[in-house]
Design a protein that fits this description.
single chain, 326 residues, alpha/beta, 9-stranded mixed beta sheet, 5-stranded parallel beta sheet, 9 helices, binds flavin-adenine dinucleotide
């Protein structure tokens, strides 16, 4: 029993982008443990996706194809992937920590008398074996989790924990795998996918975003950053606590449970730079951070950083922008 198996996620024949982050994790884990990484994609009509995967540095690509996998169901995916894992015998199975994975992966792990080590932010090697790191108490503590007992072990990875652009190219053989599925064993009957109503604000289309965090202290202070957004012709966005408190609407939240944005300029004002926020904005071309704590993690991704009190810096910036615009 050896090797790393990455379970990809697709919907309607389009990848969930977190799948590629998981491939990177799989490639790195395999390289460090001296084994091979393979990947699997499940669904109906997924030959094209498997072909795309075959151009990555993987030992094998498994195309898990069945009519009953056309629409996602926990029962269908669990049965199909259980059969694949029993055949492939990997030591570690990696998933992207998506909503779909949260739905079926614990059930799948249980089929092997295992637990899911969920939402890991990375791993390191100790005596030749991987130790996975999970955050506790909203990131205040890191816990090390070392899988014990017999393989396979099941691990899901947090969005943004690995960089999709580091995926290594190569070539892999595609193997078709047809699971034996019984329609009567699939208890859920999928309906049309839920469609979100058109968003009032499309942050993903904004060139400049001024984003505010808990450093703003109270709702009454929001107009201070709003003024900067207005002066710059930017959209206003926020970290999660601001939206959770109802100081700005949910649709303006950036991060793992909000929107993912990649504007030309992203200004993070009074935002510490928690991983769940970073995953939503680190694709911005230029990141400007204003924070009074010189050690705030946001400065690790910032191109320009101002260590200072936002209540002094932001009004001064507004004035300068207005002057520059005449
Ligand atoms: C499952 C899950 C999903 C999550 N999803 C998201 C998400 O989508 N988006 C998101 O943002 N978060 C998300 N979070 C929360 C995330 O972990 C952080 O708690 C959150 O991002 C912190 O927000 P913040 O940076 O505004 O606040 P804090 O972490 O409290 O940071 C405030 C910052 O302001 C600075 N500051 C204070 N006063 C001033 C001042 N006068 N001038 C300048 N700087 C000042 C401080 O130094 C500090 O760095 C999620 C968490 C979990 C567990």
């Amino acid at each position: 029993m050896s090797g790393v198996l990455v379970i990809m996620e697709q919907r309607a024949n389009a990848w969930n982008r977190m799948s590629w982050e998981t491939v990177v994790a799989g490639q790195q884990l395999a390289a460090q443990t001296g084994v091979a990484a393979s990947a699997a994609v499940a669904g109906h009509g997924i030959a094209g996706l498997a072909e795309e995967l075959a151009h990555k540095k993987l030992e094998k690509v498994y195309a898990v194809e069945h009519d009953l996998l056309g629409a996602y169901t926990a029962d269908g995916y669990t049965a199909a992937l259980e059969q694949l894992i029993r055949k492939v015998n990997p030591a570690i199975v990696l998933f992207p920590h998506t909503y779909q994975v949260r739905d079926f992966a614990p059930k799948l792990a249980t089929r092997f008398n295992q637990v899911l080590i969920s939402d890991a932010i990375g791993f390191r090697m100790e005596s030749g074996a991987p130790v996975f790191v999970r955050q506790l108490f909203q990131g205040k503590l890191n816990a090390d989790v070392q899988p014990g007992g017999t393989a396979p072990h099941f691990v899901s990875l947090q969005a943004g924990a690995f960089r999709a652009d580091q995926v290594e190219d190569g070539s892999a053989a595609v193997e078709n795998f047809a699971p034996a599925l019984d329609a009567s064993a699939i208890r859920a009957k999928p309906l049309e996918p839920f469609r979100e109503s058109a968003r009032a604000v499309d942050l993903t289309a904004a060139d400049i975003i001024v984003s505010v965090g808990r450093g703003i202290k109270e709702k009454e202070n929001i107009p201070i950053v709003e003024e900067l957004a207005k002066a710059l012709g930017a959209e206003l966005a926020a970290s999660r606590p601001i939206c959770d408190s109802g100081w700005l609407p949910m649709e303006r939240q950036v991060g793992s449970s909000g929107q993912t944005v990649s504007p030309k300029v992203y200004m993070a004002i009074g935002i510490s730079g928690a991983i769940q926020h970073l995953v939503g904005m680190k694709g911005a071309k230029t990141i400007v951070a204003i924070n009074k704590d010189a050690n705030a993690p946001i400065f690790e991704v910032a191109d320009y950083g101002i260590v200072g009190d936002l209540f002094e810096v932001v009004p001064a910036l507004v004035e300068e922008v207005k002057k520059a615009k005449g």
